[in-house]
């Protein structure tokens, strides 16, 4: 279950796993490959576009895209918007 300001955020299982991975260590940049291996699995051979789609969906559900920051050429990090 994911809550934001005491409101439950409806997430699919993959969205939850992805958000949990990022939110577990706020501020830490997670490499795309690391995320794919952790959330999907080490045998994933599809496009990392899947990750981009899931990130976009989670950002929309959180109501503010700044919760998940893209770090160009590296990956993503969870950070509280200011």
In words, what does this structure look like?
The chain is α+β, with helices and mostly antiparallel strands and 82 residues long. The chain has one domain: Orthogonal Bundle (Arc Repressor Mutant, subunit A), CATH 1.10.10. The chain contains 3 helices and 5 strands. The model has no long low-confidence stretch (mean pLDDT 90).
Write the layout of secondary structure elements.
Elements (H helix, E strand, L loop, with lengths): L1 E3 L2 E3 L3 H11 L6 E2 H9 L8 H14 L5 E4 L3 E4 L4
Antiparallel strand pairs: 1-2, 3-5, 4-5
Helix pairs in contact: 1-2, 1-3
The CATH H-level superfamily is Winged helix-like DNA-binding domain superfamily/Winged helix DNA-binding domain
Number of contiguous helices? 3
Largest sheet: 3 strands, antiparallel
Q: Give the second-level CATH assignment, the architecture.
A: Orthogonal Bundle
Rg is 12 Å
């Amino acid at each position: 279950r994911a809550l934001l300001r005491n409101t439950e955020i409806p997430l699919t299982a993959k969205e939850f796993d992805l958000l949990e991975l990022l939110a577990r260590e706020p501020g830490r940049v997670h490499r795309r490959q690391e995320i794919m291996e952790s959330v999907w699995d080490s045998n994933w051979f599809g496009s990392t576009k899947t990750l981009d789609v899931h990130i976009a969906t989670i950002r929309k559900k959180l109501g503010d895209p700044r919760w998940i920051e893209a770090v160009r050429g590296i990956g993503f990090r969870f950070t509280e918007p200011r």
